[in-house]
Amino acid sequence: QVQLQESGPGLVKPSETLSLTCTISGGSISTYFWSWIRQSPGKGLEWIGYVDYSGSTNYNPFLKSRVSISVDTSKNHISLNLSSVTAADTALYYCARDLYYYDSSGYPGIAFDIWGQGTQVTVSS
Amino acid sequence: EIEMKQSPATLSVSPGERATLSCRASQTLSNNLAWYQQKPGQAPRLLIYGVSTRAIGIPARFTGSGSGTDFTLTISSLQSEDFAVYYCQQYNNWPQFGQGTKVEMK
Q1: Fewer Cβ in 10 A, N or C end of chain A?
Q2: Contact B31 A103 (CB under 8 A)
Q3: Closest by Cβ to B46, choosing from A45, A112, A116
Q4: Contact A73, A29 (CB under 8 A)
Q5: What's phi and psi for B94, nearest 5 deg?
């Protein structure tokens, strides 16, 4: 059974870089896309971006200038770096496995079928 | 950017009753609409994807339907474990979520 576990500092200072790791256990990192998603009272659920096993990425255009997601297949984990953080980046950060499918019209879709438990990150001095 | 509007914000339902949740997109979508359930202190759980395909292990009382800009999640006979917040999510250019509907006990 695939399980995801997020880890990283719970407190980050404004203007610094938020760095989180998601370790995947019980399955291979290959074949799938892996996303970071955050949740806050003000913005709700917000997709940050995804990475695949080859390192290919796609990011939320509103965060793209500050985000970097990478993969380490030898350690079976993915990482998130979010630079120049402000209080607006305070949130519960999840990693999730992407379910890539084709809908009834043949268009691609992405849903998130396995989630980590989430890790709270607060941006404050 | 596509806006996803869910209604109502809160739905009060008695156990055994039917619950109907709405998700409306600001632009026409293809059929790549998903639904999630989230309980307090837990991560969201995928219920439905591709508008109407139930995820693994999801009971048949959860049904997704709709097309274009209007989508619906129906819970045919609400069980006690179904009281939660429900989110819709689309994938057009990038994944975007609605703001959620809280299903509470009447």
Answers
A1: N
A2: yes
A3: A112
A4: yes
A5: -150, 160
A87 and A42 in contact (C-beta within 8 Å)? no
If you ran DSSP here, which 8-state letter would residue B80 be given?
Answer: G
Beta pairing, strands A44-52 & A33-40:
antiparallel
Beta bridge partners of B36: B46, B87
In B40-85, alpha helices (H): none
Q: Which residue of A has its CA nearest to B42?
A: A117
Q: Who among A35, A45, A61 is closest to B87 (CB)?
A: A45
Give the model confidence (pLDDT) of A49-88 as tens digits. Answer: 999 999 999 999 999 999 999 999 999 999 999 999 999 9
d(CA B101, CA B31): 21
> Residue B43: what are its φ and ψ, rounded to 5°?
-75, 160
- The residue type found at A12 is V
How far separated are the first and last CA of chain B, in Å rounded?
35
